[in-house]
Amino acid sequence: MKQRVAIARVLANDAEVVLMDEPFGALDAMTRERLQDELLDIWQRTGLTVLFVTHSIEEAIFLADRVVVMSPGPGRIDSELKIELPRPRDVMSADFNAIRRALSEKLHSHHGRKAA
Prior knowledge:
single chain; Rossmann fold; 4 strands
């Protein structure tokens, strides 16, 4: 409910950009999926720009038009991937899972690096 209220507050203030930092991280899977769908609906109706921070590769691919991968601290942009899958996105599709594998490999390549 807190996330819904926060989104409503942004819409009421006629914001053009909203930053969401791990907003669904503490939620159960079903509530998380419902709020993801609600966020996509709001985005499609309003054209609101959403900068969404998540550690979930699947969530990033499901929600984003563009995924930016950050390096380990200090956080710098390591790479960027445009997500060109049609909506609604099917998390079980071969294309979705190919992107998931590519992003996972990119993130796991950081494990051997030390933070600068």
